[in-house]
Write a structure and sequence with these properties.
Pfam families: TRM13 (PF05206), zf-TRM13_CCCH (PF11722), zf-U11-48K (PF05253). The protein is built from 14 helices and ten strands. With about 400 residues, it is α/β, with parallel strands linked by helices.
Length: about 400
């Protein structure tokens, strides 16, 4: 490690801070020994802290504030367009916090709790079986065998997940109808990756399927046009993006946490937007973090009501869904979002554990995930998509293994 970088170790990123150190110090301003003045979270962006005495001055130049002000001027920004809410099955706009969900569950009497568990079992018994579809396509073998050298971090578990996400989309026929494959044509669709991070999923698609289209490596591919939008999916009007006007597109996403899946489906399909639906060539979304789902944002509230379930029961089901990733799945390597879920469970759940064994909780947790995602699948079918819900990797690779695919 050269002397031009801060010596503060970032455990989540598994590297040292990249910011240059202060003069006569091994650390940058964020990680140097704190002065006697109090450090407090920035009220605009809680991910960083500032000296209390500097707060007012900082608020006028916080980078996130500048980004928000700029974003609100963009034609594709439309506040809450994909957030759901409203409609005959919506009662209020309040977000139900994890604490509220917990308290609601703990307020149930033992007979009420057991009745709800039995109701979940009964509803789940009526649902179609979710098929296993662990699909590693031949096109992705070059990545799986580490044949692509772009100095991209290789983590076998994540590469296998990415390959199966694309493999299932190919199996459904979305690539054939889009001109993607061995001989891509000039009219090959755009690829919109939601929750992209560094864009590794799109990177694999571009490398393995020859799409005429992380992040840093993608920019090095000849004839590829890359556009990154830093925007909440809830506020993204896909039709207002100039580069997508009238352009067919594929929508992909690996682990769209909680309501992000619902918002992405609205963004891509649009219940009342014929042009957006006609341009969609395929969608492949790996769902996760069902405990974060909200009735306000959920895309198929009518599905739950048709099952005789209320809004309160929906939120209880989202809470119980965390039991699935709290069980032992034979893997010590669980995604970060899954680990966070487990920490949440261990931290604040004891009272509703004693009536069920750990194995029973795990089974109920998976049932709850199935019910939530089955409602999403039904919505996709109702909106004209040929769709499937599959388990795209074995649970020992990731217990968060549901994939929604459609074309």
């Amino acid at each position: 490690m050269g002397g031009s970088r801060c010596k503060f170790w970032l455990p989540k990123k598994k590297r040292f801070c990249a910011i240059p150190p202060l003069p006569n110090s091994e650390f940058c301003g964020n990680h140097s020994k704190r002065s006697d003045d109090a450090w407090i979270q920035c009220s605009i962006d809680p991910s960083h802290s500032v000296l209390q005495s500097n707060l007012q001055a900082h608020l006028t130049r916080c980078p996130l504030l500048k980004h928000k002000n700029s974003l609100h001027l963009q034609p594709f920004y439309q506040k809450g367009i994909n957030g759901g809410g409203g409609g005959p099955h919506h009662h209020h706009d309040v977000i139900t916090t994890s604490h509220s969900k917990r308290m609601a569950v703990h307020s149930l009497t033992p007979p009420q709790f057991i009745k709800l568990i039995e109701k979940i079992k009964s509803v789940h018994a009526t649902l179609p079986h979710i098929q296993d579809s662990f699909n590693l396509p031949e096109a992705c073998k070059v990545w799986i065998n580490r044949g692509i050298d772009r100095k991209i971090p290789f983590q076998e578990k994540h590469v296998i997940q990415q390959a199966s996400i694309l493999g299932n989309l190919e199996k459904l026929g979305a690539f054939n109808s889009s001109g993607i494959g061995e001989n891509p044509n000039p009219s090959s669709p755009a690829v919109v990756e939601f929750g992209a991070g560094r864009g590794y999923l799109t990177q694999m698609l571009a490398d393995c399927y020859g799409v005429s289209k992380a992040d840093r490596s993608l920019r090095q591919i000849e004839n590829l046009i890359l556009e990154r939008l830093r925007i909440d999916i809830k506020d993204l009007n896909l039709n207002a993006i100039a580069s997508l006007q009238g352009v067919p597109f594929l929508a992909i996403g690996k682990h769209l946490c909680g309501p992000a899946t619902d918002m992405t489906l609205r963004c891509c399909v649009g219940e009342h937007d014929v042009s957006r639906k006609s341009n969609l060539r395929g969608v492949s979304i790996a769902t996760c973090c069902h405990h974060l789902c909200q009735w306000k944002h959920y895309i198929n509230r009518g599905f739950f009501l048709s099952l005789g379930m209320t809004e309160d029961e929906f939120h209880a089901i989202t809470r119980f869904s965390s039991w699935a990733v709290d069980a032992d799945h034979g893997s010590d390597d669980i995604d970060e979002c899954e680990s966070d879920t487990t920490k949440m469970r261990r931290k604040d759940d004891d009272e509703d554990d004693d009536m069920l064994s750990a194995k029973e909780r795990g089974v109920i947790g998976f049932m709850c995930k199935d019910i939530i995602d089955m409602g999403r699948l039904m919505w996709m079918k109702e909106n004209g998509l040929e769709s499937e819900l599959v388990k795209y990797v074995p649970s020992n690779i990731s217990p968060e293994n549901h994939l929604l695919i459609g074309k």
